[in-house]
Amino acid sequence: MVDTEELTFDAAGLIPAVVQQYDTREVLMVGWMNAEAVRRTAESGRSTFWSRSRQDYWVKGETSGNRQHVKQILVDCDADTLLVLVDQEGPACHTGTRSCFEHGEFEVKA
């Protein structure tokens, strides 16, 4: 088991958290967590993030009802990014889409 002391947070005390649907592996969103948000997420089983704009905690779905039920939290090899596997209720994006990554793409020239 990993402890938050083992994570590598940025200068602002944050770590990116990539959120994926646990069974399909669909990438839903990316949020930011500090050590307390990681602790709250692990203890409650609900995705809790740190809002950089509001400077406050927010639980995904608390007001919208589009909750994320956390199944597992994985840590990458450098301990500087989290992968949060969830069972998503409703859309994950604030725009109403299932994923925050449905809003455009760059052209890739291979």
Q: Care to describe what's here?
A:
- The strands form two sheets. This protein has a four-stranded mixed sheet with strand order 2-1-6-5, with helices on one face.
- Helix content is 9%, strand content 34%.
- The protein is globular, with a radius of gyration of 14 Å.
- With 110 residues, the protein is mainly beta.
- It is built from one helix and six strands; from the N terminus they run E-E-H-E-E-E-E.
Quick recap:
By secondary structure, this protein is mostly beta strands. The protein has one helix and six strands; from the N terminus they run E-E-H-E-E-E-E.
Tell me, briefly, the overall form.
globular
Number of strands: 6
What is the architecture at the second tier of CATH? Roll
- Main sheet overview: 4 strands, mixed
Largest sheet strand order: 2-1-6-5
Identify low-pLDDT runs: none
- What name goes with the CATH superfamily? Phosphoribosyl-AMP cyclohydrolase
Beta strand %: 25-35%
Q: How many angstroms separate the termini?
A: 41 Å
As for the number of domains, it is: 1
CATH topology: Ubiquitin-like (UB roll)
Helix-strand sequence: EEHEEEE
Radius of gyration over alpha carbons? 14 Å
Helix-strand makeup class = mainly beta
Write down the overall mean pLDDT: 96
CATH hierarchy class name: Alpha Beta
Relative helix content: under 10%
Overview features:
two-stranded antiparallel ribbon, 6 strands, four-stranded mixed sheet, Ubiquitin-like (UB roll), mainly beta, 110 residues, 1 helix
